[in-house]
Amino acid sequence: MLAPVIAPSILSANFACLGAEVDAVLAAGADWIHIDVMDNHYVPVLTIGPLVCKALRKHGVTAPIDVHLMVDPVDRLVPEFAEAGATWISFHPEASRHVDRTIRLIRESGCRPGLVLNPATPLSWLDHTLEQIDLLLLMSVNPGFAGQQFIAPVFGKLREARQRIDASGRELRLEIDGGVKLDNIGAIAGAGADAFVAGSAIFGAKDYAATIRAMRAAIARKA
Ligand code: DX5
Ligand code: ZN
């Protein structure tokens, strides 16, 4: 299994000092920075676009940037985020007319493609995409908001996804997003995730480093 990755979602950061917030979580031990892009169409919220990603790169952020697109349509934004410095670009298959084309577009743009499945979106989306993607992101809340509760049946889906990934022999990241907290991250790791998005649990904590350290310990215990 790949080494675990902690990816704070900047959705819960203080936007009035975003560069300092990102510097702080990276100094506290975060591995990736997760950017939630919402368009007031695929989800009923409007957040941030490629300019913010670009500004973080210009600010000096060198860590991988994990862009989670909750937008419909998808394709027009892919080259813009690639140009803005994204490392990973993930999208929801329901939001793209031509899923294989979008995956290829992400790779051709120089980024690593990921597919995001909502809690009720079946793993069968992997049937014809697993060989093409580098990351599978399972949503453990319905997309759109920070601070929601982890949807428990996603544990079974995670285990199933882990089996499919292992059986494929591919080095595919299995990421989880939504309601990840200190008290469930170990069990989530036990179910097979190796990349952990956490927004409110990290940015809502007083001590980022202590929180990330405790998360890593729970991941290692898998409980
Ligand atoms: C939800 C977003 C998440 C969100 C997670 O649509 O994709 O990344 O920021 O927030 P928490 O960790 O607070 O559930
Ligand atoms: Zn996200």
Keywords:
alpha/beta; binds D-xylitol-5-phosphate; binds zinc ion; 18% strand; TIM Barrel; 8-stranded parallel sheet; globular; 223 residues; 34% helix
Description:
With 223 residues, the chain is of the alpha/beta class. The chain has one domain (5-221): TIM Barrel. Helix content is 34%, strand content 18%. It contains 8 helices and 8 strands; from the N terminus they run βαβαβαβαββαβαβαα. It has helices at 18-27, 50-59, 77-83, 99-108, 154-168, 185-190, 200-203, 208-221, and strands at residues 5-8, 33-38, 65-70, 88-91, 112-117, 135-139, 173-177, 195-198. The longest helix has 15 residues, at 154-168. The protein is globular and about 45 Å long. The model has no long low-confidence stretch (mean pLDDT 98). It binds D-xylitol-5-phosphate and zinc ion. D-xylitol-5-phosphate is lined by residues 9, 11-12, 34, 36, 68, 141, 143-144, 146-148, 177-180, 197-201.
